[in-house]
Specification:
By secondary structure, the chain is of the alpha/beta class. It has 8 helices and 14 strands.
Length: 251
């Protein structure tokens, strides 16, 4: 009798082969962060916003912004965390702590933090996945890791650099995840100053999804968030997890 892990591996191999057959000869015509099929906001008449924080991993990206996360916990601010496999490997205890905190929702930020492409396109100098098989691996390997460690399957996927091509977007949907980006660029890869982060956050509208980073403690993201959130609360805004508004998402 096959073990659960063996059944899972067989299922994944068959799914990958089916996607290779379906999409192996497809040629992308669009490339970017925003296109049909990628969710970037949600429909609502309420003053609610989803804060999302990426943890990219790798040599320069496996840090932990303790000041930021401590503030979110102290203020009871829910947030969706898109976490890369490399960050998990570098911070296993922190990952478990975040995953078990009901304020946070853990989502999929890929295996090697690559732009999601079926023909190797690059973004910000980072080479993308080379073909359909690598697209599937970039999504599925980290999905299985998160599911194994937390007991919960991710609902959303955001690639490294947030770039997709249109064929890769279709593949993510076929894999059962929702491709997710943003309508408010919160910190531009943790390069924004405090003033720029604050200004970006104060530009939100009802249903905005904000992209920020939690893996760059030497940046100004934490201070910008800390300055902006009280002002947003005064305006009547509150914060939600993406899973709470999954049925209201729009591209």
């Amino acid at each position: 009798m096959q073990t659960h892990k063996a059944k899972e591996a067989t299922h994944d191999a068959l799914l990958k082969q089916r996607l290779l057959t379906t999409y192996g000869n497809k040629h992308p015509v669009r490339w970017g962060e925003h296109m049909p099929g990628i969710y970037q906001r949600f429909e609502t008449s309420e003053k609610i916003v989803a804060l999302t924080f990426d943890a990219c991993g790798g040599k320069e990206g496996s840090g932990y912004d303790k000041k930021l996360i401590d503030y979110l916990i102290q203020q009871r601010i829910p947030a969706t965390l898109f976490i890369n496999s490399r960050w998990i490997d570098a911070n296993p205890e922190l990952f478990q702590s975040l995953a078990h905190n009901p304020l946070f929702e853990i989502e999929n930020h890929g295996f090697l933090h690559k732009p999601l492409s079926v023909d190797g396109r690059s973004a910000y100098g980072i080479a993308g996945t080379q073909d359909v098989g690598q697209v599937v691996d970039e999504v599925m390997i980290n999905e299985r890791k998160i599911e194994r460690l937390t007991g919960r399957k991710p609902m959303f996927f955001r690639p490294g650099t947030a770039y997709f091509d249109d064929v890769a977007v279709q593949i993510v949907h076929q894999l059962g995840l929702k491709p997710l980006n943003y309508d408010v660029l919160g910190d531009a890869g943790a390069t924004y100053s405090t003033v720029q982060v604050k200004r970006a956050l104060l530009s939100v509208k009802p249903g905005s999804i904000v992209l920020l980073h939690m893996n760059m403690p030497h940046g100004d993201t934490a201070e910008g968030v800390i300055q902006a959130i009280p002002l947003l609360k005064k305006r009547g805004y509150r914060f939600v997890l993406l899973q709470e508004v999954a049925g209201q998402l729009r591209s």
